[in-house]
């Protein structure tokens, strides 16, 4: 692959706030039903503007986005702009029952926010129930004022690559069934690339995403893991990938054959078209440390085709070399060694060049959260006599043994902004685990498996310097937990396996060039240490981005207080904020 030179002289100096937006860009999102056929079966999905995946949103760094949502569907809806910092625009975050009440049939809500201090690729998606299975799309932020990217050569074009999952069944019913019976959800039927499973799946020879390239040119692939339940390996046969951004933050470039992304993570990679001709598969396969019989997932890779200009474009007909497309050599489904080696390569660039803020070195708020599965009693699945989870109990999930329960008649942000009396009952999320045990030891702590259901938040002062350690636990299964923090990026200063040691592990933290992310995986049977500044007033969700883990309650929220002055104070809500409808409490989004 060609050498990519970084030219920081052309890179703008980012600031936390802009007095005036560079441009205002308007989008109209019409939410409606769409019939889609995949795997020889047709089903009705919820989509935006009749598109699956949904339309791309484009902006330059510093732009103001005005996105009008109109619901023409019976399902409650909220759309989250995943990875957007939402500085002073918490009302636009789009998180059901956290930042807003969901949108009902016939209702309209306009999201207004600036994209500040970040460039690259992120995504938007539904943030209520399992609608994210089809309600998602790319959000692409170019450098300010169309300045060139800080590498050479400049890519000739950018190509969004959205990895997803496809169920032939109704995903809303899959979630409802799992919650009603206490069992695990049905696995997806296919992995997709830009909504297409590709020709390795039956009845899918024509359901394949294709992109044409020219020999000698450089292309910018914007890879997004929009899947609900799986981390993925992604590769392009006979081509290497140079990683230049992750989660819309620049990294020191490194070149690999395969990248690994958990749900919610994004990668900007450069591909040099170094083949003379031919067709080559781009492929996404499931990555899981849990054995297949315990956590099923599609065993076939989703594929698209990278096709050189001189190649035959008639379906899967042989190209001019007389060959069908070449498949990449992907790691095995449980190749954690490759995943670890990929993660170890990620380093951010010198903060003074373009980062909004530097790594917090002095910490005044420390948290230690256990994250993992839980079990609830077998009498918790009426009208069933027993649940369908392990040992006839109900599968659940928790943070610090608390399974989060959404409010139902008010959003958390509204409750705290207007200082409603109910907000007092929401305070008090524990800084450390309620139950302490050998977190990664033998699974014999049966008394710690039943979580408490509550709506609890942790309150931070403006500009607190926060260190949070997330610790996986051994109850039921070790697995990766991709945690996403709304409203903030965070630095991944350390990670490891086994129990976190507050004396022995911090001396090895990377405080020089740690990755800056909005979503990061807690290692299976290990821990993850992150740091961030609480410099964005509002209510911000922290949650696992595996959808069923979120449904089971693996989440909590931080409330960041206002600071001093207009630039540190959350403005009032817009006039068209949706109102909550009275309903029975639910355990999930």
TrEMBL record:
<protein>
    <recommendedName>
        <fullName>Laccase</fullName>
        <ecNumber>1.10.3.2</ecNumber>
    </recommendedName>
</protein>
<dbReference type="InterPro" id="IPR011706">
    <property type="entry name" value="Cu-oxidase_C"/>
</dbReference>
<keyword id="KW-0439">Lignin degradation</keyword>
<dbReference type="InterPro" id="IPR001117">
    <property type="entry name" value="Cu-oxidase_2nd"/>
</dbReference>
<feature type="domain" description="Plastocyanin-like">
    <location>
        <begin position="430"/>
        <end position="562"/>
    </location>
</feature>
<dbReference type="Pfam" id="PF07732">
    <property type="entry name" value="Cu-oxidase_3"/>
</dbReference>
<keyword id="KW-0479">Metal-binding</keyword>
<feature type="compositionally biased region" description="Basic residues">
    <location>
        <begin position="580"/>
        <end position="589"/>
    </location>
</feature>
<feature type="domain" description="Plastocyanin-like">
    <location>
        <begin position="159"/>
        <end position="309"/>
    </location>
</feature>
<dbReference type="InterPro" id="IPR002355">
    <property type="entry name" value="Cu_oxidase_Cu_BS"/>
</dbReference>
<keyword id="KW-0560">Oxidoreductase</keyword>
<dbReference type="Pfam" id="PF07731">
    <property type="entry name" value="Cu-oxidase_2"/>
</dbReference>
<feature type="domain" description="Plastocyanin-like">
    <location>
        <begin position="33"/>
        <end position="145"/>
    </location>
</feature>
<keyword id="KW-0677">Repeat</keyword>
<comment type="similarity">
    <text>Belongs to the multicopper oxidase family.</text>
</comment>
<feature type="region of interest" description="Disordered">
    <location>
        <begin position="569"/>
        <end position="589"/>
    </location>
</feature>
<keyword id="KW-0186">Copper</keyword>
<dbReference type="InterPro" id="IPR034289">
    <property type="entry name" value="CuRO_3_LCC"/>
</dbReference>
<keyword id="KW-0964">Secreted</keyword>
<dbReference type="InterPro" id="IPR033138">
    <property type="entry name" value="Cu_oxidase_CS"/>
</dbReference>
<dbReference type="Pfam" id="PF00394">
    <property type="entry name" value="Cu-oxidase"/>
</dbReference>
<dbReference type="InterPro" id="IPR017761">
    <property type="entry name" value="Laccase"/>
</dbReference>
<comment type="function">
    <text>Lignin degradation and detoxification of lignin-derived products.</text>
</comment>
<dbReference type="InterPro" id="IPR011707">
    <property type="entry name" value="Cu-oxidase-like_N"/>
</dbReference>
<dbReference type="InterPro" id="IPR045087">
    <property type="entry name" value="Cu-oxidase_fam"/>
</dbReference>
<keyword id="KW-0052">Apoplast</keyword>
<dbReference type="InterPro" id="IPR008972">
    <property type="entry name" value="Cupredoxin"/>
</dbReference>
<dbReference type="InterPro" id="IPR034285">
    <property type="entry name" value="CuRO_2_LCC"/>
</dbReference>
<dbReference type="InterPro" id="IPR034288">
    <property type="entry name" value="CuRO_1_LCC"/>
</dbReference>
């Amino acid at each position: 692959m060609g050498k990519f030179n970084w030219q920081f002289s052309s890179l703008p100096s980012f600031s936390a706030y802009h007095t005036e937006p560079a441009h205002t860009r308007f989008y109209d999102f019409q939410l409606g039903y769409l019939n889609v056929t995949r795997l020889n079966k047709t089903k009705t999905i919820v989509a935006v503007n009749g598109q699956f995946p949904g339309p791309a949103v484009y902006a330059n760094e510093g732009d103001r986005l005005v996105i009008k949502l109109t619901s023409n569907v019976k399902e409650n809806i909220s759309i989250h702009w995943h990875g957007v910092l939402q500085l002073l625009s918490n009302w636009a975050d789009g998180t059901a029952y956290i930042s807003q009440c969901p949108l009902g049939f016939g209702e309209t809500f306009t999201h207004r926010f600036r994209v500040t201090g970040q460039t690259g690729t992120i995504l938007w998606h539904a943030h209520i129930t399992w609608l994210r299975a089809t309600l998602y799309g790319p959000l692409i932020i170019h450098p300010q004022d169309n300045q060139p990217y800080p590498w050479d050569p400049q890519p000739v074009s950018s190509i969004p690559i959205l990895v997803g999952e496809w169920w032939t069944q109704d995903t809303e019913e899959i979630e409802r069934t799992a919650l009603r019976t206490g069992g695990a959800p049905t696995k997806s039927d296919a992995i997709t690339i830009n909504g297409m499973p590709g020709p390795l799946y039956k009845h899918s020879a024509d359901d394949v995403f294709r992109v044409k390239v020219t020999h000698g040119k450089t292309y910018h692939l914007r890879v997004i893991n929009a899947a609900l339940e799986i981390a993925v390996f992604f590769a392009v046969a006979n081509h290497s990938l140079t990683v230049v951004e992750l989660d819309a933050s620049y990294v020191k470039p490194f070149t690999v054959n395969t990248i690994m992304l958990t749900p919610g993570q994004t990668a900007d990679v450069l591909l040099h078209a170094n083949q003379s001709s031919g067709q080559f598969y781009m492929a996404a396969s499931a990555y899981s440390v849990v054995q297949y019989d315990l956590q099923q997932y599609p065993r076939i890779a989703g594929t698209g085709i990278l096709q050189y200009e001189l190649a035959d474009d008639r379906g899967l007909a042989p190209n001019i070399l007389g060959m069908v497309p070449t498949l990449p050599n992907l790691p095995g489904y449980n190749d954690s060694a490759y995943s670890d080696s990929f993660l170890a390569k990620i380093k951010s660039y010198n903060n003074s060049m373009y980062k909004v803020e530097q790594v917090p070195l002095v910490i005044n708020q420390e948290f230690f959260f256990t994250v993992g599965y839980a079990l609830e009693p077998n009498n918790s699945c009426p009208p069933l006599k027993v649940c369908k989870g392990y040992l006839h109990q109900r599968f659940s999930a928790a943070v610090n043994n608390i399974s989060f329960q959404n409010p139902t008649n008010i959003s958390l942000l509204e409750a705290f902004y207007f200082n409603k009396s109910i907000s007092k009952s929401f305070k008090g999320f524990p800084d450390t685990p309620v139950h302490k045990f050998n977190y990664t030891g033998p699974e014999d702590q049966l008394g710690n498996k039943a979580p408490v259901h509550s709506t609890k938040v942790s309150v931070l002062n403006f500009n607190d310097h926060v260190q949070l350690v997330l610790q996986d636990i051994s109850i039921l299964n070790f697995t990766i937990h991709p945690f996403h923090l709304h409203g903030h990026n965070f630095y991944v200063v350390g990670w490891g396996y086994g129990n976190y040691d507050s004396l022995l592990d911090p001396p090895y933290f990377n405080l020089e060039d740690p990755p800056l992310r909005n979503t990061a995986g807690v290692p299976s049977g290990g821990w993850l240490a992150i740091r961030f500044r609480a410099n964005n007033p509002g209510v911000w969700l922290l949650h696992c981005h595996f959808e069923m883990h979120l449904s089971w309650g693996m989440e909590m929220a931080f409330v960041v207080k206002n600071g001093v002055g207009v630039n540190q104070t959350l403005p009032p809500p817009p006039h068209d904020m949706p109102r909550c409808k009275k309903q029975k409490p639910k355990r999930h989004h």
